[in-house]
Amino acid sequence: MLPVYFLVLLGATSSVFGAVDFTQPGHVIVHPGQALTIACKVSGWSLTDSSYCTNWIRHASGKAMQWIGHICSGGGTGYTDSLKNRFSITQDTSSNTVTLNGQNVQMEDTAVYYCVRYKNTVMCITRVPVQKPFQIGFLAFIIDGIIILGLKATN
C-alpha cells in the first residue's frame, strides 16, 4: 500500500478587492491524520478594526459551501459544530495574518478553502476589483495513490 500525502501548494499569490488584499504564500505536505495550517495575510484593513470579522469557508467538489468559522477583532471565535473540534482560527494583529489550523486532516477535508472578510451582511472573498471575482483556494487530485492539493486562482 502506497503512503498517502496531502501536498498543499500556495504560490505567493494575492488578490485585491478594492483596497483589500489577501495573500497566501508557501507550501506544505501533510500526511492524513496530521495538522494543516493555512495562513492568510490581509491588508487594506486592520484585524483590530471592530467593524470586521475574518471567516474561513470551504467548498468541496459537488457539495455546498461550508462555513468553517470566524475570528473577530477582539479575538472572539465561532465555529460550525461539525468542525469545531478539528479546526481553529487564530490571528496575529502585528502581521495582519489570520491562520486556519486543521487537526487530523482527512480525505473529506479536500476542498477549496477561502479566507473571507465580513462586515455586517457583506462578505468580501479573496477577489479582484471590477466585480469579476478572483478566487483563491485549493484543488485536489490523486496521482499514483498520492493526494495532491494545489492552489486554484481564477477570475
Automatic annotation (TrEMBL):
InterPro entries from the UniProt entry: Ig-like_dom (IPR007110), Ig-like_dom_sf (IPR036179), Ig-like_fold (IPR013783), Ig_sub (IPR003599), Ig_V-set (IPR013106), IgHV (IPR050199)
Record-annotated Ig-like domain positions: 3-115
Record keyword Signal present: yes
Signal sequence segment: 1-18
Presence of keyword Secreted: no
Protein name, UniProt field: Ig-like domain-containing protein
Alphabetic keyword roster: Adaptive immunity, Immunity, Immunoglobulin, Signal
GO terms under biological process: adaptive immune response
Organism, as annotated: Silurus asotus (Amur catfish)
Any one Gene Ontology cellular component term annotated for this protein: extracellular region
